[in-house]
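Dataset card, provenance and construction

Sequences and ligand SMILES were collected as paired inputs. For each pair, a complete structure of the chain with the small molecule in place was predicted and serialized as structure tokens. The example below shows a pair involving adenosine-5'-triphosphate. Curators did not alter the output after generation; any descriptive sentences attached to a record were derived from the structure itself.
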Amino acid sequence: MSAVLEVRDLQVAVGGLPIVRGVDLTLAAGQRLGLVGESGSGKTLTALAIMGLHRDPIRVVGGQVLLVGTDLLRLRRRQLDKIRGAEIAMVYQDVAASLNPLITIGHQIVEAIRLHEPVPRAVALDRAADLLGEVGLANPRDRLSAYPHELSGGQRQRVMIAMALSAQPKALLCDEPTTALDVTTQARVIGLIDRICAQRGLSAILITHDLAVAGGFCDDIAVMYAGQIVEQAATKQLFATPLHPYSEALLSATVDLDTDLDRPVPAIPGYPPLPEEVDEHCSFRTRCVKAQNECRQVITLRRIGDSDVRCVLATGIPNGTDGVVR
Ligand SMILES: Nc1ncnc2c1ncn2[C@@H]1O[C@H](COP(=O)(O)OP(=O)(O)OP(=O)(O)O)[C@@H](O)[C@H]1O
């Protein structure tokens, strides 16, 4: 499968401190990739850098973001504005900050459509209504004249998805698209993104701190810790045999809504290092129950079976010595 998006050795710094430290990601046509990690691991900065939406004090200090072969990091702003939205579009975490409260949603979607294609307003309005129908809003034509505050949180997120689709992108970058929503609405919005990706043949990156959400949607998952990918594997593989101790800890802290509601969810003890505390050695060693002296070295991603893992202790034989995959 050809790659829609290739991120190579992406490095992002904030005020001179390295935050995203050499991230590689490849998104194939039609693939759904999860980028998962705790708050502060650098997921949003990775997304903003991919979209070229980062602003001072955030700086991309190295790497490439290849969208169908073109390096977005080398483009001038005007060229980037053309590609952004048309080739790759982002669905944001903070819907309230992304929709203008003073403008009707119809007008906002029409503007998004006409930014990329100079169609007459009436044509754009028809398309806007179609898009609202596609994202599951009832009476889409009537909803065009609604203001954002007249919609529920879930409906506003659907409008954001409609806007992201307005220029018919090849890839969607969804940054915690359901974090602000209740559990039932979360499931509906993820279901909607799932259906739209399948119907339109879209590739997608889903950014989330919730491994269970990624597990239900993604073909593959990249686990991020302190600005680095520490494990990348097919979703089934990662859930069955997490090889990095951080992936294992994240999995143990994941709630299965069908069976685990009465079980206390264990939190991962300790905190990720602050950006100024990060060194070139394993960043998870201070919280890792398996940490050894040899964790104090530069550790690269290496292939074990079908997974890529950044841990010197990983052997591919999980949880003990019997070799049974649990
Ligand atoms: N505008 C900013 N100014 C200063 N520091 C920032 C800024 N944005 C991000 N950071 C730093 O970068 C780190 C990574 O932030 P980022 O938002 O990428 O994390 P995340 O993994 O997406 O977490 P979350 O899920 O909470 O958004 C933060 O912990 C913070 O230290």
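Derived descriptions for this record:
Residues 319-326 have pLDDT under 50 and may be disordered.
The chain is about 30% helix and 25% strand.
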